[in-house]
Design a protein that fits this description.
Elements (H helix, E strand, L loop, with lengths): L1 H19 L2 E5 L8 E6 L4 E5 L2 E6 L5 E6 L2 E5 L4 E5 L2 E5 L5 E8 L5 E4 L1 E6 L6 E8 H13 L5 H16 L12 E2 L14 H9 L3 E5 L9 E2 L9 H5 L21 E7 H11 L23 E4 L2 E4 H8 L6 E6 L2 E7 L7 E2 H9 L4 H8 L3 E5 L3 H6 L1
Parallel strand pairs: 1-13, 15-21
Antiparallel strand pairs: 1-12, 2-5, 2-9, 3-4, 3-8, 5-6, 6-7, 8-11, 9-10, 11-12, 14-22, 16-20, 17-18, 19-20
Helix pairs in contact: 2-3, 2-4, 3-4, 3-9
């Protein structure tokens, strides 16, 4: 009975967290320093609020231009100048509403988003802060399309949706001090627009509320990457964070996919200079011994040669390599890196998981292949735990 009460409490806390997160605040166009942009509804109507007061309506054909003028926002339509304000909100009248946004300065392509938009200026008044106030599941659909692309199977999208939802709920406080919850960059999760593919929307709706927890009912770190090259990594080998569920697994499903292999060559003298000057290789005369390294029979954590020991993740970062899963050999006056996979290698291998889905594995099977000792939790099960 005591165990049941603990489970009930944990699930209740999770449910409360999820309920509070029904709408997510996402800073969009994060990497652009925008000083002028255009907003227009996508076949729906919006209320326009300026400094907290209802300014008017924006019908489906309405277009607004917003630009920075001094320390304020100048708001215009094609017909008139509506004034200068400290902040604006575009609030949808319909739950299905969406809008288009186009940066004018600097110029960029049109993007589309669901639900609402809040507009303010950065503390230095040099750029817009654009916050998409979006339904959580609409956001998840957009992330899935941004992270996984289009044209993949429904079963894979179901798993990706669950992982993206889990990741979101473990990072909701990442940017709260800045006035929003998550950004649209890979620092949080890629979110470049609303979802347009039907299979993605179906996958998100069919898995609504599902997240992944470990055996202690804690939300997992839902790590994923493009391609592991045939073997995923232990979390502690990449992030110095040991978990029960992010363990290395042999993966043959990704071996013939697009990101499975790569090569890069650098001048031999550059490699020797790197070892000697940046990595303080101790014995100059033995640099000739450090021209080969093999990971032919499985992943390593370190590049080693005599007294030299460099974490492979450091070499990857220094040379901007696709992964840490590489071998090195000398070819003439060059050193060739023959690599496998793309990304940090922890958790879900996306290309391997996509192949498993094509081979008719269920999303549950794929989940348990890449993550050990985990469970799917549905918030609708809360009533069951209450009865206990």
């Amino acid at each position: 009975m005591k165990k049941n009460k603990i489970i009930l409490l944990l699930v209740f806390l999770f449910f409360a967290c999820y309920s509070n997160a029904a709408t997510v605040s996402v800073r969009i166009l994060t990497t652009k320093i925008i000083s002028t942009f255009i907003f227009s509804p996508l076949g729906c109507s919006y209320f326009v609020y300026a400094d907290g007061q209802l300014l008017g309506d924006c019908d489906p054909s309405g277009i607004f231009q917003m630009s920075i003028e001094g320390d304020s926002i100048r708001l215009k339509t094609f017909e008139r100048d509506l004034g200068k304000f400290a902040g604006l909100k575009m609030v949808s009248k319909e739950s299905y509403a969406a809008f288009k946004i186009k940066s004018v300065i600097p110029a960029s392509k049109v993007r589309t988003y669901d639900n609402n938009l809040e507009i303010s200026l950065s503390p230095d008044k040099k750029q817009f802060l654009l916050i998409n106030k979006v339904d959580l599941e609409n956001y998840i659909a957009g992330v899935v399309e941004s992270e996984a692309g289009r044209g993949t199977s429904l079963e894979y999208y179901k798993l990706q949706a669950i992982l993206c939802r889990t990741y979101l709920l473990t990072h909701l406080t990442r940017h709260t001090s800045e006035g929003f919850e998550v950004c649209d960059d890979v620092h949080c999760q890629a979110y470049s627009s609303r979802a347009n593919e039907d299979n993605i929307v179906k996958a998100v709706l069919s898995t609504k509320g599902l997240v992944v927890v470990d055996n202690n009912l804690n939300l997992i770190t839902a790590a994923f990457h493009s391609n592991c090259g045939g073997e995923t990594c232990n979390s502690q080998d990449v992030w110095a964070m040991s978990t029960t569920y992010l363990k290395s697994v042999k993966d043959t499903f990704c071996l013939n996919q697009s990101q499975a292999r790569w090569q890069r060559s650098i001048p031999l003298e550059d490699w020797k200079a790197y070892l000697q000057l940046k990595r303080k290789y101790p014995i100059v005369d033995s640099l000739n011994n450090a021209k080969s390294f093999s990971q032919s029979y499985g992943r390593s954590v370190y590049f080693t040669d005599k007294d030299l020991k460099i974490p492979l993740k450091i070499i990857r970062a220094d040379f901007k390599l696709k992964s840490t899963y590489f071998s090195i050999e000398r070819i003439g006056d060059s050193v060739k890196f023959s690599g496998r996979g793309y990304g940090h290698g922890v958790g879900l291998c996306q290309e391997g998981a996509m192949q498993m889905a094509r081979l008719k594995y269920s999303y549950e099977d794929i989940l348990h292949f890449y993550y050990k000792d985990v469970n799917l939790v549905d918030i609708s099960a809360l009533s069951y735990f209450k009865q206990e």
